[in-house]
Design goal:
There is one protein chain. 44% of the residues lie in helices and 10% in strands. The protein contains 26 helices and 13 strands. The strands form 5 sheets. The protein has a 4-stranded mixed beta sheet with strand order 3-10-7-4. Helix 12 packs across helix 19 and helix 22 packs antiparallel against helix 23. It is globular and about 90 Å long.
Length: 571
C-alpha cells in the first residue's frame, strides 16, 4: 500500500480518508462513509494483506498457495470437478510420506530388543543381554524420520502444467493400503516438487456446511432475517464481537456456563485454549479477532512470547497493545516495512521467520539478524521473532473469522437455529439422559468427564465434553432438549420444536444406533405412520438391542405390540 502511494500518488478526493485508512488494518473496522464523487455508500471489506505473501517479490517469486474450503459434504464432488476441468492426465492427489517420529522410533528399537511381560508389564531382554536406555536412544536416532508409509494429502491436488507430463517429476500410484481407486496419487511427497507443480488445497470444512444449514432456515422464514444471501450476513456487528469478551450479551453469567466468554460452538473461538486467550486480550474489533486467530494457530507465538509482551512481562516491562504484537506471518513484512526495511528484505525475513528460522536454524537466524541490524527495529520485536516456530497466514485467519462471525450472528440473534445447526453438523457424541435432564444433569455429567484422568479419556469422551458445554449454554439461555421422538425427530439433525422452545434429539443420539438405521426410520415414517411395534420392526433396519433401547426411552408408549383381531362371538 505504501509503495503504491509513493508510485501513483494520492488524489485530492482521497486525501481526507488517509488518516482513517491508516488507523485500521481491516475494512470492517472503518466507519461508514460515502463516495465524495457520487455519494454512494463506500464498501469497506478490504484487508491489509500484502500480495507478496501469495506471489513473492519480483526478485524472488514464489508458487502461489491457494487454499479453498468447501463443505465437507461436497468435498469429493469438488475434487472430481477440478479433475474434469484439467483432465485425468494433469490432476493428481498430492502424495505424502509418513515418517517414524522419535518416540515411535524408540519404541521400535525397544521392541526389537525387548518383549513385554503380559503379567508384570516389565520389558524383558530377548537375547539375555543388557541394553541401556542410552544405547536404545542412539539407535532410535538412526531410524528417526525414516519412511514408515505413504499416504495422500486430505485435500491437496497437484496440477501438471500444460505441455508436460507428471512422469517428468514423479511416478504416480493408487494410495497404499486403500481400496480407493478413483484417484492416482503422486509417489513422492509433494513438498519435494512443490516449486515445479502447482498445488490446490481443496479442504472439507465445517463452517460452509453449518452456514448452508442455517440458510435453510432463512429460506423457510424470510420474515425473521434482514438478508437472503449468506454473503450478506453481517460480520461487523459489535454486539456479536461482545461474545468474544464476556457473557453479558447473552444475558447469562460466566458461572452458568463455566466460561468467561460466550464462544462455545463458534469456530476459531470455542476451544479452552482460545477461550483463555480471549479472556486475556478481550478483542473488540475485526482486526483484533484476526490477530487472535493467528495467535491461536501459530506455534510458539502466544505462549511465552506475545502473551508476555501483552501483559508487560517481556523485555519492555510494560504492556504492549495487541495491534503491535506479531499474530500472522503478514505482520512481519508490514511491520518491517514500517521500520524502514526494504520490501524485498522484509519479504525474505517474513518467509524465514514464519518457518521458524530462529529456533530451528541458528546460523540462518544470525545471518538474518545481521541483515536487519542496520534498521531501527525494537529489541522486543527481534526477541519475539526469535521464538516463533510457525506463523499462520493472515488470509487464512481473515477467511476463518468472516465465516465464524457469520455463524456467530445466528448465535446472538436467532439462537435456536444456531444450536440446531452446530449440534447437527459439528457434534458427534451425545448423552440423552444428561441433555434431556436439564442444567443440573448436564453439569453433573460434565463434572464426571472432567474428573476422569486425561490418560483414560477416549476421543468420544472429549467430543462429549464439547457437546455438553454447548448444551449447557443453550439450556442456560432458556431453551431445552426434547427426548428422541418417533414422529418428530430427524435421523441426524436436531429438529426445532414448532414453538421454538427447544430441539428434538435425533435418532443417531441413541447409543449404538447407526446412520443407516436412523435414515431407515425416517424413510419408513415418511411412507406411512407406524401402526404397531411389530410394524416398526418389520419396516426399519433396527436390531433387537436398539429396539429395546428405544422402548426404554418411551418411544413406543401407547403403541400396541401387534394388531389384535377381536371377534364378537355374541357370548
Amino acid at each position: 500500500i505504501h509503495d503504491q502511494k509513493r508510485k501513483y500518488g494520492i488524489r485530492p478526493d482521497e486525501e481526507a480518508f488517509q488518516s482513517i485508512l491508516e488507523s485500521v488494518t481491516s475494512g470492517f473496522d472503518l466507519p461508514d462513509a460515502k463516495c465524495p464523487v457520487c455519494g454512494s455508500p463506500l464498501e469497506k471489506d478490504g484487508h491489509d494483506i500484502p500480495f507478496e505473501t501469495f506471489l513473492g517479490v519480483p526478485e524472488k517469486p514464489k508458487t502461489p498457495d491457494i487454499d479453498l474450503n468447501f463443505s465437507g459434504e461436497n468435498q469429493g464432488a469438488i475434487h472430481n470437478f477440478i479433475r474434469d476441468v484439467f483432465g485425468e492426465t494433469r490432476a493428481f492427489r498430492a502424495g505424502t510420506i509418513l515418517t517414524a517420529q522419535s518416540k515411535v522410533a524408540y519404541a521400535m528399537v525397544r521392541d526389537y530388543f525387548f518383549e513385554k511381560d503380559k503379567t508384570t508389564g516389565e520389558f524383558l531382554s530377548k537375547d539375555g543381554k543388557y541394553h541401556s536406555k542410552a544405547e536404545l536412544e542412539a539407535l532410535a536416532q538412526g531410524i528417526a524420520e525414516s519412511k514408515k508409509s505413504s499416504s495422500q494429502h486430505p485435500g491437496g491436488i497437484v496440477v501438471v502444467p500444460e505441455g508436460h507430463e507428471v512422469y517428468e517429476i514423479t511416478p504416480v500410484q493408487y494410495p497404499g493400503d486403500s481400496s480407493d481407486r478413483s484417484w492416482m496419487t503422486t509417489h513422492f511427497d509433494y513438498h519435494t516438487f512443490e516449486k515445479n507443480f502447482f498445488k490446490l488445497d481443496v479442504l472439507g470444512h465445517d463452517d460452509p456446511t453449518v452456514i448452508r444449514y442455517l440458510m435453510k432456515f432463512v429460506k423457510e422464514h424470510p420474515e425473521q432475517f434482514p438478508f437472503t444471501n449468506a454473503k450478506d450476513i453481517p460480520v461487523n456487528d459489535h454486539k456479536v464481537y461482545q461474545m468474544m469478551n464476556d457473557t453479558k450479551v447473552l444475558n447469562i453469567l460466566p458461572q452458568d456456563i463455566n466460561s468467561p466468554v460466550a464462544t462455545y460452538g463458534i469456530s476459531e473461538f470455542g476451544t479452552s485454549f482460545v477461550r483463555g486467550l480471549l479472556e486475556v486480550v478481550r478483542p473488540s474489533t475485526f482486526a483484533e479477532l484476526v490477530k487472535v486467530s493467528g495467535l491461536s494457530h501459530g506455534t510458539d507465538v502466544w505462549n511465552n512470547n506475545a502473551e508476555e509482551l501483552f501483559l508487560g512481562k517481556g523485555i519492555e516491562k510494560h504492556p504492549l497493545p495487541l495491534k503491535t504484537i506479531i499474530g500472522c506471518r503478514d505482520d512481519i513484512m508490514l511491520d518491517l516495512i514500517n521500520f524502514g526495511v526494504p520490501s524485498k528484505t522484509a519479504f525474505s525475513a517474513m518467509e524465514s521467520i514464519r518457518k521458524g528460522v530462529g529456533p530451528k536454524k541458528p546460523k540462518d537466524w544470525q545471518k538474518l539478524l545481521d541483515d536487519l541490524s542496520q534498521y531501527d527495529i525494537p529489541k522486543w520485536y527481534i526477541a519475539s521473532c526469535a521464538k516463533i516456530s510457525y506463523l499462520f497466514p493472515k488470509a487464512h485467519a481473515t477467511a476463518y473469522i468472516i465465516m465464524a462471525l457469520r455463524i456467530a450472528w445466528f448465535k446472538l440473534y436467532r439462537p435456536i437455529y444456531f444450536y440446531s445447526a452446530v449440534m447437527s453438523k459439528k457434534m458427534t457424541s451425545f448423552d440423552i439422559d444428561a441433555m434431556v435432564g436439564g442444567m443440573d444433569a448436564v453439569k453433573e455429567r460434565l463434572q464426571e468427564l472432567r474428573n476422569m484422568p486425561i490418560s483414560e479419556r477416549k476421543v468420544k469422551d472429549e467430543d462429549l465434553i464439547t457437546t455438553l458445554e454447548l448444551a449447557l449454554e443453550m439450556i442456560a439461555r432458556g431453551m431445552k432438549f426434547y427426548n428422541v421422538d418417533l414422529n418428530k425427530s430427524e435421523a441426524k439433525d436436531f429438529a426445532v420444536a414448532e414453538d421454538g422452545s427447544g430441539l428434538y434429539l435425533p435418532f443417531i443420539a441413541i447409543d449404538g444406533l447407526g446412520e443407516n438405521s436412523a435414515l431407515s426410520i425416517v424413510k419408513a415414517r415418511n411412507e406411512k405412520p407406524f401402526d404397531t411395534q411389530k410394524d416398526f420392526k418389520e419396516r426399519c433396519q433396527v436390531n433387537a438391542t436398539n429396539f429395546e433401547k428405544m422402548k426404554e426411552l418411551g418411544m413406543f408408549n401407547g403403541m400396541a405390540e401387534d394388531n389384535q383381531l377381536t371377534l364378537d362371538l355374541g357370548i
